[in-house]
Amino acid sequence: VQLQASGGGLVQAGGSLRLSCAASGRTFSSRNMGWFRQARGKEREFVAHISADGGSTYYDDSVRGRFFISRDNAKNTMYLEMNNLKLADTAVYYCAQTPLVVTAIHDYEYDTFGPGTLVTVSS
Fold this sequence. Notes:
By secondary structure, the chain is mostly beta strands. It has strands at about 5, 10, 15-25, 30-40, 45-50, 55-60, 65-70, 75-80, 90-100, 110-115, 115-120.
C-alpha cells in the first residue's frame, strides 16, 4: 500500500484544517490507521487512531476534543479534522497503516507511513 497525506497549510491559531490521506492498494478497508506528527527538533508523536471499519477511534490527550479522525473506505481515504488549532500543533503530519488489530499508539506498531504534509499555525 502507498499512502499520501495532503491538506496541510498555513492557518491562524484558532482556525481549522482538514487533512486527507489517500491510500492505494486493496488493504485499506481491512487495516487500522493512524495519524502522527513531528515538530521540528522533536520526535514523531501519535495523534489519532481509527479502526478498520471506522467504528473505534482514539486520540492523544493533546488533541482530544479538537481533532477528529474519520475514514471513507469506499474512497480509500482517511481524514483528520483539526479545529481550534494551536501554535503547538505546528508539525509535519503523517498518515500510517498498522497490521495490528488493537489500538496502536506507537510508531513502531505501524508498518507503512506516507510522506507528510506540513501544518503551520501562526499567531
